[in-house]
Amino acid sequence: VLVRAANLTAAEDVYDSRGYAVRKDWVNGPNKVFRFVLRSFFDGGYASNYSSFFFMELDAVPLQAFWLDQFAREALCYPTAAIRGSRYLGDSWDMFSHLMAD
């Protein structure tokens, strides 16, 4: 197990649940962490040993038993898929999606 810290500053570590309409950088913290993980994957030399990786949002909670087994089966069945998962069924983006660029 390798543990690395993103070391976000207070200004970078932002997650404002009020959303985009209130604060344009409302998900800056999670976005910075994702970029850190991706950069670490490439800069750490892992990219030369792997063709892909799995990133699960830190606040995601699996609801189904053996979900990782299903994920592995789908990864083998659809090896070129860039994104896997169910359609987004929430409404968190509805109030401000019209404000975002296409």
Summarize this, please?
The chain has 102 residues and is an all-alpha fold. It contains two helices and no strands. The longest helix has 16 residues.
Give me the secondary-structure topology.
Elements: H1 28-43, H2 67-77
- What is the N-to-C succession of helices and strands? HH
What class do helices, strands and sheet pairing give? mainly alpha
Cα shape:
globular
Unreliable stretches covering 5 or more consecutive residues: none
Strand content: under 5%
On the 0-100 scale, what is the average pLDDT? 85
- What is the number of helical segments per DSSP (H or I, 4+ residues)? 2
- Please compute the radius of gyration using only Cα atoms: 16 Å
Give helix % range. 25-40%
Please describe the biggest sheet, giving its number of strands, its sense, and whether it closes into a barrel: none
Notes on the protein architecture:
The protein is globular. The model has no long low-confidence stretch (mean pLDDT 85). The chain has 2 helices and no strands. It has one domain (28-99). With 102 residues, it is mainly alpha-helical.
What descriptive keywords fit this protein?
0% strand, globular, 102 residues, mainly alpha
